[in-house]
Amino acid sequence: MSMTDILSPKDIEAALSSCKAAGSFDYKIFFSKVGLSGKTPEQVKKVFSILDQDKSGFLEEDELQNFLQNFAPGARTLTPDETKIFLTAGDSDGDGKIGVDEFQSMAKS
């Protein structure tokens, strides 16, 4: 399964365009532009499973750093600051990673 099975290529392109510059990534804007906030819980879980590269059931810091590359292979990596902000925003239980339920909450916020 790929992102384009769930999200529109046009929306992916628009979302990636909104955060091309280092330091410009905002997960709320990205999730809105990519259309994730309007998807069903099952679709959001499918996106999560694509992002969870090591299939641990969590998104860890290294997976978040490469987050944009899951949407397009040539996309940039997130800066260390962007990655930390993204992780802090999603990690509601303080375990240092984002679980599927936390990701669902982020997608809907």
UniProtKB/TrEMBL annotation:
All residue ranges annotated as the EF-hand domain in the record: 39-74
Signal sequence, start to end: none
GO cellular component labels: cytoplasm
Family annotation (InterPro entries): EF-hand-dom_pair (IPR011992), EF_Hand_1_Ca_BS (IPR018247), EF_hand_dom (IPR002048), Parvalbumin (IPR008080)
GO MF terms, alphabetically ordered: calcium ion binding
Highest taxon of source: Eukaryota
Gene3D superfamilies xrefs: EF-hand
Protein name: Parvalbumin
Lineage per the UniProt record: Eukaryota, Metazoa, Chordata, Craniata, Vertebrata
